Amino acid sequence: MHQSILAVTLYIFGGMTPGDYLEKSVDVFDFATGKIHKTADMPSKRYGVRPVTVGSKIYVIGGHNGDASLDEVLILDTKKDKWSVGPSTNVTRDAPGTILVNDKIYAVGGGIEWDKPLDTVEFLDLKKNKWFMSEHKLHAKRFAPGLVQLGDYLYVVGGYDGINALSSVEKMSLKTGEWSNATAMSLARWNMAVAVVDGKIYAIGGNDLKSSEVYDPATDKWSILPDMSQIRKGATAQTYKGHIYVFGGSGNDGKALDSIETFDLKKNQWTILAEKLTVGREHAGSAFLPTP
Asked: What is the distance between the alpha carbons of residues 93 and 107, in angstroms, rounded to a whole number?
């Protein structure tokens, strides 16, 4: 979902605001200046979206409109600040894991509803502009998992199986499409933020957690990191110049946060920024625009 490419700006889409109101607004965070501004609203309100950047366009996949999960894919042309509609997914997906690999966008798991999670995988072939179902399913159903790439594998981290939050991790071979079990996290997490830095996976917050942990494939172990200032469930994250930025989520009181917290990888500590989102956002989605 979030890769360790040097980003310039981060687009943060929709979500739920304090009071559980749905949002269609979009915030843009400039990493160089540390400032937030707004851009063109989405055509409709939604949360649980999972955006993916393709060139100068951002594909906003799935989510929930308050009544039902969505198969709709919205496309933002960031050069024109205009929206269009892309090809629909085969299955409605609220809070799937999404990622771009070569000319394919993968959508992994998610849910018809939060308590009706999915174990299916599909991918959008950008050359054919069509979604295809993978013949290989996840070993577990996973609502709101994290999804990242390490080398020739996609790692799906945690999620909710309809009964319990999961600590388990699976990895998919990009060569065969087959899933296998990987080393589980220290804690069960869903609706967490994830990031990759220097070949390591960071799982941040989720559930009612303010803790984070990191997976080092060299040792095949997860290690607990210092706690954030408060719980962050449904936050979103991106890396920039040795820091992990974590945006929004719901906090200690269960209300959507407008704050931004950063983790300094060298100092191993968290700091809250003075800049804030234009509105508190829980279950928002984000995508970066990398350096041209």
From this structure: 8
